[in-house]
């Protein structure tokens, strides 16, 4: 069961499971604790996992203050401090990976090992155009279902669309009672479109694993590789047959990769 944790001026909806070294999970656009279900279930025998709803998503309110990646990184840092966690492994996907980058840059002492899934240093022209298309689509789509069906074409593999996985995900989202407003989706996208960590990534000194989906048409492998090349000593791996969210489509493989990486980090430290 989750609960609201007070971090600064924000009540952040948080779920914690398991025992062991702390892991903080940071979701992407509109994603909530539920997006990490396979990790909360599959890694809780080895780690103390903390997942949360970003500001303006799910059960965490969107403050009146301007939305920025820096503010969301500070939210994550505030949550760890409110929980009394001195440092944690951190994993973020998509926009959550950009928050994770900013978290380790702004609060380096809080991060032990970093996993970035489907990431980028700065949006290239293609990714920026896609993000602005999603910003338009969320308002122009005739229904929430129509928006999700269109949006997910770029998020999940054809395999997941054809075997019914995407249909099940859509039904779960439609039934979820804590909807993100159209305006909050757009404010969230606006915060990331021009965000750029390119020149600061070499300041990251924690062990880092960068994962890309070989079939991801948004944060494509070259963008992910560009992040890995700028972080000293970072490891770069491609899941060749996967798209934007392999942690949901092939969770056993994804969990094994990040578990192996975090075990190596623990052995080194």
UniProtKB/TrEMBL annotation:
Pfam families: Abhydrolase_1
InterPro entries found in the cross-reference section: AB_hydrolase, AB_hydrolase_1, AB_hydrolase_fold
One annotated GO molecular function: triacylglycerol lipase activity
GO process terms (BP): glycerolipid catabolic process
Stretches assigned to the AB hydrolase-1 domain: 22-246
Protein name: Pimeloyl-ACP methyl ester carboxylesterase
Organism: Lipingzhangella halophila
